Request: fold
Amino acid sequence: MTGMTQEQDDLAYNVFAKACPSRGTLEHVTGRWGGLTLGALQEGSLRFNELRRRVDGVSEKMLSQTLHALERDGLVHREAQPTNPPRVDYYLTPLGHRVAERLLALIHCVEGSMDDVLAAREAYDTRQPS
Amino acid sequence: MTGMTQEQDDLAYNVFAKACPSRGTLEHVTGRWGGLTLGALQEGSLRFNELRRRVDGVSEKMLSQTLHALERDGLVHREAQPTNPPRVDYYLTPLGHRVAERLLALIHCVEGSMDDVLAAREAYDTRQPS
DNA sequence: CTGTATCCTTAATGATACTG
DNA sequence: CAGTATCATTAAGGATACAG
Reply:
């Protein structure tokens, strides 16, 4: 009980610190394609090309790269059937689901705020610079 | 009651669609510096250089650019005192607070999962490629 | 179908210097 | 202090071709 006590916000990891490994994981999770990929997989497993269609605009290369990073971080599981033609299913791990849940809450919050955001932009763009 | 009905997920905006304006806002919010900036401001208003110290690693240029985007989207408010030397305070709008709340839930989830993430990476990196 | 490899282009970022 | 402007560098992304 001496030295470091264990309070609820006494975290070993801190994204605000440049060198903390959590910053890299946060970037995988919130990156341009990482967030949408996790969001898409929250509903259930998807195959590579299903995912590609779901995440509108992603290229093969970026999706592949994104999936590798998420798999390495333990958020996504990859299951390959040794059939011909090959069939590969991607789905979230329990950890991935917990992260995706928060991510989707954020996504829905943003989607639901877009009328306000667009109005704010309009106001910002039309105001006179003093 | 004909035509489009209003269900809970019948959203006007959809980040999964490439051309939806919500995708751009999501990127501002989850971008490399946008997320950390919003997270830092959730606790209260900060001045430019305070923010810069808080968001470890951000350059003047990127912080300035990030703040402009968040201000334009109506998430951050900028208040300049006409003093000399100048004093400028940044703080979240009500909308910014709602977004930052979800963002911090995600951040804390990631920070709290890092032991698992690091273990997953270790396993991924040491396994034999079949 | 599920990717990988390569090349090329563009966008993001960083460093530095400078202004009000 | 609070930025802007410019330049140089780097990283991200896209297109295409091809392999298992």
